[in-house]
Structure formats: C-alpha cells, structure tokens
Amino acid sequence: MRVVIVGAGKVGYSLAQRLSEENHEVVVIEKDEERRSIVQNNLDVMTMLVFLRPEFWRAHRNW
After folding, report:
1. Which residue intervals define the domain RCK N-terminal in the entry (predicted)?
2. Mind listing the pLDDT tens digit for each residue in 9-40?
C-alpha cells in the first residue's frame, strides 16, 4: 500500500516506522528540517521537506 504521512512528530514517526516494517511504500512530509532528517536517517521511507500548499496536493492526488 502507498501511504503519505503529513508530519513527523511522535505519531507520524511511529506510524511511518510501523508501516515501513510491514513493507508499505511510505512518504513522510515534514516542514521542519531537523525532524525530516531524523526520519530519513532512521527509517526506510522517503521524506520530503515541504511547506504544503494546494498545488502540492493537486499534483500528487493520483499517487
């Protein structure tokens, strides 16, 4: 399953970790570089440093 998680706080990180362990395709979107870096360095997921705007969601709605 493909999953996009918005936010890499405690819940987002834990969810990304669990889904990654279950071999799901996970993308974590985070606006804070430090949090994004922690996820990128510790989990087998893709991360994006993004300030979310409507254009982003329109461009990725079929992902």
Report:
1. 3-43
2. 999 999 999 999 999 999 999 989 999 999 99
Name the residue with tokens 């705007």.
53
Q: Which domains are delineated in the chain?
A: 2-54 (3.40.50.720)
How far apart are the C-alpha atoms of 32 and 52, rounded to whole Å? 12
Q: Which residue has the tokens 């870096």?
A: 37
Q: Are 59 and 41 in contact (CB under 8 A)?
A: no
- The CA-atom distances, in angstroms, between 15 and each of 12, 32, 54, 58, 59 are 5, 18, 24, 24, 24
